[in-house]
Amino acid sequence: MEYLGINLYVENKPELDPEFIPLYKFNQAFLAGARKPVGIAVERADGEMAVCHTFIHGTEEMRKADHYYINRLVKTILWMKGGFKIYVSGDQDTYAYLSAAYSAGGEQEFDWDYMAGVFEHPFEVVLVDELPEAKDAPKPMGGHMEGCRIGFDAGGSDRKVSAVIDGETVYSEEVVWFPKINSDPDYHYEGIVAALKSAASHMPRVDAVGVSSAGVFINNRTMAASLFLQVPKDLFDAKVKDIYIRAITDTFGPIPYSVVNDGDVSALAGAISLEDTNILGIAMGTSEAVGYVDEQGRITGWLNELAFVPVDANPAAMEDEWSHDIGCGVKYFSQDSVIKLAPAAGIELDAALSPAEKLKVVQKLMEEGDDRAAAIYRSIGTYLAHTLVFYHDLYGFRSVLLLGRVMSGKGGDTLLETCRKVLASEYPEVCGKINIALPDERFRRVGQSAAAASLPEIR
After folding, report:
1. pTM surpassing 0.85?
2. Sign of torsion, CA 405 410 416 418?
3. Could you give the 3-state DSSP secondary structure of residue 296?
4. What is the pLDDT, as a whole number, of residue 403?
5. Residue 110: alpha-carbon gap to chain centroid
6. Which of the two residues, 140 and 235, has the higher pLDDT score?
7. 85 contacts: CB under 8 Å, gap ≥ 6
8. Is 7 exposed, middle or buried (0-12, 13-18, 19+ CB in 10 A)?
9. Tens digit of pLDDT for each residue in 269-295?
10. Which of 52, 250, 308, 399 has the smallest CB count inside 10 Å?
11. Is a pLDDT exceeding 70 seen at residue 445?
12. DSSP string spanning 242-274?
């Protein structure tokens, strides 16, 4: 297999997508012949800095390959950790290329604009003689059980809340709501407050509140979230960025609180149930939701939006409709992947069905023993094996927790079996370092909202 002058060998290919080029394999083959040092650093909130020292070829002949490698590397760092400023050292051409790519009209205009909005800072690319030093500030969140706590989990179709006293859930409820189709942020605010008051009514007092929600949160503020998709920008800025902070403090006064991405809370719930740390959680559902708990059991504060981290170097990979980039995780580890592969498996899905309904059709075929459906799950399992090695290179996790609708039923079993076989066959040196775990009864007892309740520390 060859791409941009880089030759690589892939032993295990997805049977329904044989042109898949694992980005990890491309990167390793690229670096094998690269000799010119280049430094990349990405600055994020509060002066935190992600730093990467790497190599390119630095020749005219390999210029396209150099640009592609650097492009995918920077995009990976941005969506893994977040940031608004790229520092480049060691190569003028790399700086010029990134400056053009991350600009209005550039090939990475979406990332340029999105990160500027999330971090409320103009996006910059600068050339420096020496990179700044790496700096991280993981947050010691989660695992706090003492006191009377509320955990709130904001989902796209329902909201869940739990009242927890000294680690014991004394009350939980789920309420259907429709946040994604409501443009009035007061609808969201009133729903959040109603849930908080409901939980509070089952405890003698409220000492702390933890919130789990889809989206990007910096210092407990909502910087981007699909739950508020229909809210106009002026109202988002005025009423949504601080919506959870206002709901909590308006209801209970100045008590401790934490607002965290739901992927991180899933990883935290996994850490609690597995009684371990250094865990990556991957939920394959509507999208690919990811969270990470580090070796010390801390939530890092990184974006962990791996749905938009590239995993496939195939130039004909499917485009994501939101970011308009190709080869990113959302099309490989979500219901979109099942739908994408169905035609290649010979399965016709009614275009009038919703994505969730299309997934159910394939799941039903899988339960009936249809090998066409099994081929879809074997292909996703192959994707996952190649990508887990890539993710392990990024995070160094000890365990990975697999969640979500795509992992349910016989399909999930086939996916996992294939993943393990490919890891053992093609990556034996990494296979033994990765513990793949599935939710157990203890994890289900912990629950997303109950895990969220453990987020804030009571001082």
Report:
1. yes
2. negative
3. coil
4. 87
5. 17
6. 235
7. 42, 43, 121, 123, 124, 125, 126
8. exposed
9. 888 888 889 999 998 988 898 999 999
10. 250
11. no
12. THHHHHHHHHH-S--EEEEEHHHHHHHHHHHHH
Q: Is the dihedral of CA 306, 222, 142, 50 positive or negative?
A: positive
pLDDT in tens, 350-381: 999 989 899 999 999 999 999 999 999 999 99
- 75: tokens are 């995009």
Token pair, residue 350, equals 């009614």
Looking up tokens 């955990």 gives: 151
Local structure of 4: helix, strand or coil: coil
CA angle 68, 74, 75 (to 5 degrees): 90
Q: What is the pLDDT of residue 366?
A: 97
Classify strands 85-89 and 124-127 as parallel, antiparallel or unpaired. parallel
Which residue's structure tokens are 């630095």?
A: 58
pLDDT at residue 139, as a whole number: 76
Q: Which helix (H) or strand (E) holds 411?
A: helix 409-426
Per-residue pLDDT tens digits for 15-70: 999 999 999 999 999 999 999 999 999 999 888 999 999 999 999 999 999 999 99
Q: Tokens for 83?
A: 């940031």
Beta-bridge partners for 165:
148, 168
The Cα–Cα gap between 148 and 201 comes to 11
Those residues with Cβ within 8 angstroms of residue 78's Cβ, 6 or more apart along the chain or in another chain: 42, 111, 115, 303
User: Phi/psi at 73 (nearest 5 deg)?
Assistant: -65, -50
The Cα–Cα gap between 131 and 89 comes to 6
* pLDDT classification of 87: cutoffs 50, 70, 90: very high
The whole-number pLDDT of residue 377 equals 98
**Tokens 């694992």 map to which residue?**
22
- Here the tokens at position 82 are 């977040």
Residue 394 burial class via C-beta count within 10 angstroms: exposed 0-12, middle 13-18, buried 19 and up:
middle
Q: Which residue has the tokens 């074997």?
A: 378
289: left (phi over 0), alpha (psi -120 to 50) or beta: beta
In this structure, are strands 208-213 and 148-154 parallel, antiparallel, or unpaired? parallel
Is the distance from CB of 448 to CB of 262 less than 8 angstroms? yes
Round to whole Å and give the CA distance between 16 and 249: 52
